[in-house]
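User: Sequence recovery, please. Input:
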């Protein structure tokens, strides 16, 4: 499997420090300096992956003084990394799925983890679980993308019997989530991720 990561490093006094690990094995540990225009691109080929794996992208070494502000406390420069994309065998992980993964900040007074963020201004580690089978993972990610997109697109409707059920829009059609002769997005997601 070929893994490719694209990061936009943000410079402030120094380039950010970056560590990339798979299953706790360090594969890159150095300054994150652009090597493809304004981006840092890292890619490597792997042969002996497990069925299920963990990719870790760690931003570290930042100090409070690496965030430079003006007299109005507006940020002028910040030492950070911005995750732009992740590919497995040239199959991109959808951006909405990247936002769903957890970033574990290593900074005082922060929550255990954050989601919905690809700008790593704090020291910390972003984690992605991935499968050895890149095509299965890709289609699973497409289903997860649809599920996440519909997360806030669902409605509660009342049947003539008075029962309330959840429905959501799937490919432009309102779908009854409890109808037994149709497949819900949850059913599709569970089938692919088993």
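Assistant: Recovered sequence (194 residues):
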């Amino acid at each position: 499997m070929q893994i490719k990561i694209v990061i936009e490093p943000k410079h402030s006094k120094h380039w950010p420090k970056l560590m990339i690990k798979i299953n706790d094995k360090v594969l890159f540990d150095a300054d994150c300096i652009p090597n493809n225009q304004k981006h840092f691109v890292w890619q490597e080929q792997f042969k002996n992956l497990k069925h299920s794996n963990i990719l870790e992208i760690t931003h570290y070494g930042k100090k409070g003084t690496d965030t430079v502000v003006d007299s109005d406390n507006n940020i002028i420069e910040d030492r950070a990394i911005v995750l732009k994309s992740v590919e497995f065998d040239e199959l991109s992980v959808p951006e909405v799925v990247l936002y769903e993964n957890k970033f574990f900040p290593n900074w005082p007074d922060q929550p255990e983890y954050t989601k919905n963020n690809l700008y790593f201004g704090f020291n910390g580690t972003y984690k992605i679980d991935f499968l050895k089978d890149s095509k299965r993972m890709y289609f699973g990610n497409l289903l997860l993308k649809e599920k996440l997109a519909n997360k806030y697109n669902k409605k509660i409707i009342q049947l003539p019997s008075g029962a309330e059920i959840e429905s959501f829009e799937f490919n432009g059609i309102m779908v009854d989530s409890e109808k037994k002769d149709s497949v819900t997005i949850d059913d599709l997601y569970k089938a692919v991720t088993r």
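The mean pLDDT is 87.
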